[in-house]
Amino acid sequence: MGGRNDLGVRPFVEDDIPQVAALYWTFMRGRKGPAPPALQSSFQELYFTNPWIDSAPSSLVYEGEGRRIVGFLGVIQRKMSVCGQTIRVAFGGNFVVHPQARSNLAGLRLLGAYMAGNQELSQTDSANNVSRNLLERLGFRTILPLSIHWARPLRPAHYAVYAMSCLTGPVLSASLKFAAKPFCSVVDSMAARLSLSPFRLTEPILHAAELDVETLLHCLAEFRSGYSLWPEYDDHSLKWLLTFMDRMQARGDLRKVVLRNDSQKIVGWYVYYLKTGAVGEVVQIGGEQQFTKDILDHLFYDAWNQGVIALHGVVQSRLMGDFSEKNCFFTCRGGWTLAHSRKPELLELLNRGDAFLSRLDGEWCLGFGE
């Protein structure tokens, strides 16, 4: 991944940011006009000043005729540990190719250069069906234990309207939501309180406080027991990550909560994006497994009090029973995790669900928004 080659692939440098931002804005986001300055600033911070940067750039561009950039693949290097031994994991994202360059295999060449890097593991945690099929043809494997998404309606009537509105245009969607709002409010109020309702909410038994960086570092170290692979963080990298996520407002406000029992012992935590009147995206849930259902109860109650209509997230496969008992339902349609490695034992580890990973630990949490 070092120097310029005859295929048009080369490392991404800071002078490329205006062209790459324009390519992303137009063909990935589908927007018209110039890319906003804030987007260029986000590219600069994410790919040139993040705390995992080393001496060699990892992200890639594809140059076409006249040195015009027609393809981009953003790569974030993460440090992880396998039974105490540090490895490099390269997460690829923000992959975009100009339509006029798709016939000359620009995308395949970018992916080939990415896979040939010096990382022990190449991974993505937000592939759609199209990119999944492409990556599997190149040798990536779908990691099912990290691709199981869960959903939990908190206001089921509003959530049903939300689901229908996703299938309609923006004008019809707004009209549908406006017309259904009074009915939905009545139904959802009953659903949260009736004893036989699967959506009933009860007062949590755990005690909440704001989750700070130091406490989260402690939690990540304390509760990774039983897993062979986990992410490595220090105070600087975790603080940077949470600050970056907090500024990306498209998904809502980032809410971080630590939970204690009556003896004031930490038993769990959760991090999620709060968006009143919309679906909240859960970044991470963790803690003592015996308290998983209590942690979920607290999360659901907290989000409901904040006006969230439902929560979405990714579940660790060994916790699916607890999530199911709390009336979550599951799908693999929310984004696929795929991985490639020259070390088969790493892929086997991922495929057996032996990785303490969440949305906090890949490229999903570093998106610029919808």
Please summarize what this structure is.
Helices cover 35% and strands 25% of the residues.
How would you characterize this protein structure?
This protein is α+β, with helices and mostly antiparallel strands. The chain is 35% helix and 25% strand. It is built from eleven helices and 15 strands. The strands form two sheets. Strands 1, 2, 3, 4, 5, 6, 9 and 15 form an eight-stranded mixed sheet that branches. The model is unreliable at 1-6 (pLDDT under 50).
Protein topology:
Layout: E1 9-11, H1 17-28, H2 37-48, E2 60-63, E3 69-82, E4 85-97, H3 106-115, E5 121-127, H4 129-137, E6 141-142, E7 149-153, H5 156-165, H6 170-193, E8 207-210, H7 213-222, E9 229-231, H8 235-247, E10 253-260, E11 266-274, E12 279-287, H9 292-305, E13 310-314, H10 320-325, E14 329-331, E15 336-340, H11 344-351
Parallel strand pairs: 4-5, 12-13
Antiparallel strand pairs: 1-2, 2-3, 3-4, 3-9, 5-15, 6-15, 7-13, 7-14, 8-10, 10-11, 11-12
Helix pairs in contact: 5-6
